[in-house]
Amino acid sequence: MKSPMEKIDVSKKFALFSEYWRPKVIAELNGQEVKLVKFKGEFVWHHHEIEDELFLVWRGSFRVEFRDHTIELKQDEMLVVPHGIEHRTVADEEVEVLIFEPKATRNTGDIADEHFTAPVGIKI
Q1: What integer best gives the mean pLDDT of the chain?
Q2: Average pLDDT over residues 94-115
Q3: Rounded to 5 degrees, what are φ and ψ at 118?
Q4: Extents of the domains making up the chain
Q5: Is 8 left (phi over 0), alpha (psi -120 to 50) or beta?
Q6: What angle do CA 111, 86, 109 make, to 5 degrees?
Q7: Cα–Cα distances in angstroms (integers) from residue 105 to residues 47, 118, 124, in the given order
Q8: Do the Cβ atoms of 97 and 108 come closer than 8 Å?
Q9: Which CATH class, in words, describes the domain spanning 10-102?
């Protein structure tokens, strides 16, 4: 039996953690996870073989770099990165981002990186 629906205060959830590059799951739906993550600095170049990624900026701004162009995102903007496209995220200042992607998607995609690869499915 499913648990009762409960609203989620996204700002309060962001306040529960301070580490960068370690997504936290706040909800699941239709085989997808809604994750919160804080960025600062440069992430690793990577791609996802089968998963598309949706980035929605909650607070701040960052850019998604591709090998041939860059897309700047600021608060209230979003971007879907199709599977198979190599990319990395870069934030000059701390940014808070919601990510929507299939359940158990590894944040570094095809790359295993000691500093950046986060455990999957960490819920807050």
Answers
A1: 88
A2: 74
A3: -105, 150
A4: 10-102
A5: beta
A6: 30
A7: 11, 10, 17
A8: no
A9: mainly beta
User: For the chain, where are the alpha helices, taking DSSP H only?
Assistant: 10-14
Q: Distance of alpha carbon 38 from its chain centroid, rounded?
A: 8
Place of tokens 């986060």: 118
**Cα–Cα distance measured from residue 12 to residue 83, given in angstroms and rounded to the nearest whole number:** 31
pLDDT by residue (tens digit) across 66-89? 999 999 999 999 999 999 999 999
Distance CA(112)–CA(106), nearest Å, equals 9
Give the length of the chain: 124
CA distance to 24, 67, 82, per residue, from 36 (Å): 5, 25, 19
